[in-house]
Amino acid sequence: MQLFLVNYDTHYEIEQLSRMFFKGLTVEKCADIPPLPQQDYILIVKTDSGFDYTVNIKRTESKSTAALDPDGPKEEMQLCLGAYKLYQSATGSGLPWGVLTGVRPVRLMRNLYKAEGDLEKVKEKFRKDYLVSEEKIDLCTNVFNIQKPVIDCGNPQDYSLYISIPFCPSRCSYCSFVSTSIKTAGHLMQGYVDNLCEEIRYTAKKAAETGLNLKTIYMGGGTPTAITAAMLEQVMKTVQECFDLSKVLEYTVEAGRPDCTDLEKLQIIKKYGATRVSINPQTFSDNVLKAIGRNHTHADFLRCVADARTAGFDSINMDLIAGLPEDTVEGFEKSLRGCIRLGAENITVHTLTLKRASNLVIKNEEHHYDDVEKMIAKNAILADYGYKPYYMYRQKSTVKNLENVGFSQNGHESLYNIYIMEEIQTIISCGAGGVSKVVAADGDLKRVYNYKYPQEYIKDFDAIIDRKDQVFDICRQFGLDR
Prior knowledge:
Strand content: 15-25%
Number of strands: 18
Distance between the termini: 56 Å
CATH class of the largest domain: Alpha Beta
Shape: globular
């Protein structure tokens, strides 16, 4: 399918929306209507009064026009609204999030609420201006209501610390994160950990000088428990020595892979101050685990959860993914109920996202995803057991235009997940692949990137320290220093 966009330069939103309806879409911007192909195409022409649309599918042509409303939403959104209605008519199907292509619908709701001061008016905008389904409006509203008191009590000088351990025992087929297999990069781990500890110490020093207040810590990756127990203790001891953990509200370590997480490592994590761990089954089905390249079984996962409880953790998150190869609706529900039965304080349900850097896409191992919506519908079960949605985000390549949602028992909402996803608090990152985001009191945001891979992080570590200075220079420019 080819989209011809005539006499209109901005194309991101309409391109993303069109891709949700039509796979393999390409975009061509033109000054005039070009010769049109015999095969399927979309033609959108900007006119003096609005837009003319044509969709040609299997030689069946559908047309519509849309006049610009000076009192309506921004012009590109009006362009998308007209296209959406024609796409829906031509294909016979719509999208649960309507024309919204952004990753943070809750932030949109929050910004509209600031302007309107009336949540019912905001919900009506979601219906009318964005064509969002009632189900998704309710989900977004529930998350908004849980997040509101957390966000309202924030202080511009508050920050969170992210620590990256970009190593994994193996690479899952759906993964596109910055992670390196320990089989090929194990020799880099000690040097990486030594530099990481130096960066953590420097960060602590600069944060204290600037007068920032540390609120949460999140150690992710990769898989932090992929490094040895001694290396893990080295990192966590450094954190404990550098920061006053008595003032930290939440300290999470991802212990996501049961094939590299044992009781010794979990006891180290607990000993050095972590309050929360994430142990991620992704699925309870061994055949699905094998299909996605996870080198562990469901029994290994159960052992890991038991070890976490033995180590003293009373706040455990479990991740599931809807839409994995070989999974079924029944299998997904079994996994969901299994997490509930184990007493997980958090259950995060991701919808499979087909990212270009993942092996699922690279190897063209795409499957049929017709059941994903039925899987996500099973999330309704969680409400019966006291779980409430507290954070949510979307990705542009997510199957069926769906979402990722974190559910929590009361009092176990992850503050870090709210801060990072809604971009309402400064996040200072240490380690390869880390991105520091400095957030001003007025919401202005600037990013500083660390090197992406362990090799370059180790090789040019002086540049990492220089970039950390940039982070704190921005803090001062934003008036976040005392």
